[in-house]
Amino acid sequence: MKIYQLNLKCFALSQMKEFYTNVLEMSLVNESENHFTVMAGTTKLVFEKDDTTPFYHVCFRTNVEFYEYMYLKLGQESVLLANEEGEYSMFWEGKQAYFTDPDGNILEILERPCIHAEKSQMGWFDVGEIGLPTKNVQEMKSKLEKVVANRYVSESETFSFYGNQEGVFVLVKEGRPWYPTERGATIHPLKVFVSGEQGAYFNDEEFSYEVIVRKEWEESFPAVQFRLARPTNQIEQLIRFYVDGLGLKKIGEFRDHEGYDGVMMGLPNQGYHLEFTQTKELVELPQPTKEHLLVFYMPNRFKRDEMVNRLKMMGYNEVEPENPYWGRGGVTIEDPDGYRIVLMNSAGI
User: Cβ–Cβ contacts within 10 Å for residue 200, how many?
Assistant: First the structure.
């Protein structure tokens, strides 16, 4: 279970950005008035401004050289935490240390082999653990089993690892102290993107936990999502065509984000989707040819014809395809920008 991205709440936004970029030396990806994003190796870490101070546990993995470098630096910052024996540097299958950030989150460094590259590299590898406090550990395990595989066995009612060597959720009973302190775990919203055998989505509304599971396509091309993006000057007409007419689902949208409005439509969901974007100023758009096609293979002819009739009622009629192949079992229709879709009565290749 690789942890691709972790979205956390934070209170002291500017101090947290300073700490993660300058002290922990994580590269800043983007920022706004209400959030900032850094890279912890291969894991994207997003902090979103909140009115309350949350309390999380996150573990970062690295090699021994960077561990020693960062251990000295954190010591100079006076943020290291000692265990019950007064030790600041510990050992658990590798060197280990705990520290706090400006929000008081309990963070951990683990020295481990790098599993994401053929050669070890200097700096952070990834996020290896994220704490997931809950009222009942076994119930949370049962919920996660529906979306994420687990290799760890634990009968403890207050603590359990969940995941594998690539990444784990640390399930703890609410109120159980986070080692090496006596401060009890509390529940706060978080969102995490992880790898899995199949794409899945878990939303625990009681605890405001979201787990989005992405399946990597294959080892030679480890993508987990595909987006086809296109600019337009008439976004509302495209929404009407693709959502109301064609029947795609709107899976996301934004307004005035750095000067852009946008909408995402699933093909049929987040894994494969269209995005249309528009700026306040009209832009010069390329003229599509008659061979610019978005082809949908649809085994059910009657459902296909329902879409065709619905679009026809909206004023979008069938056009003659440039390539006669698409006319044999297919219906070609132009969208408001002149790009063509083909509704092909076929089970595909």
Answer: 15
